[in-house]
Amino acid sequence: MSTPDIRLVVLDMAGTTVADDGLVERAFDAAALANGVQPGSPEHEPMLAHVRATMGESKIAVFRHLFGDEEKAQRANAAFEQAYHDLVDAGHCAALPGAAEAITALRESGRKVVLTTGFSRATQDRILDALGWQQIADLTLCPAEAGRGRPFPDLALAALLRTGTDSVHQVAVVGDTGYDMLTGTRAGAAVVAGVLTGAHGEERLRADGATHVLASIAELPALLG
């Protein structure tokens, strides 16, 4: 089966193009502690399970679900961001092998590339700065700039609108989580590709709508042709 004529590639960051290496979970420990939940405690374990299950979702949305009220959610989000920023500043941030090369190849083939995230703009910029990726993509988007985060279609559709892409049938959405796959399918993307370098395995990716599953982002340019 031939691959559709893809003009826009919407790429997730952590777990897809950027190595996570447990940074989200480590930062979540700080978020939980900010609301009096000790890491490793019986209360903490189901919260951590929810964080793992909802990888890719807007972090403030995750905290609203876990902590119930807005004040606690905002406190958790602030602690999470500070902890994540500290980890990035300490050097715990790296591109996944082949990611930069894949992005470059996609753009050189005439396609637009948009990097998306479930993080805030401040955290997204921290990662881009650490990697020297400020100019690597045509556009970068966080949930607050699109309307809603994953699993809603807003990030992919905002990318389409902002890049002037003609049709959802020219869009590929790529990520490492089920929520990325749901975003792609709900946006009507022609290609919804999961990668096995992050949070979720092939079964979850397929269940949530992946049209393709790749070992890593490095395989994407060959898939799209």
Automatic annotation (TrEMBL):
GO terms for biological process: DNA repair. GO terms for cellular component: cytosol. Keywords: Hydrolase. The keyword Hydrolase applies. The keyword Hydrolase applies. One of its GO terms (molecular function) is phosphoglycolate phosphatase activity. It comes from the Bacteria. PANTHER family: PHOSPHOGLYCOLATE PHOSPHATASE (PTHR43434), PHOSPHONOACETALDEHYDE HYDROLASE (PTHR43434:SF19). This is Phosphonatase-like hydrolase. It comes from Kitasatospora viridis.
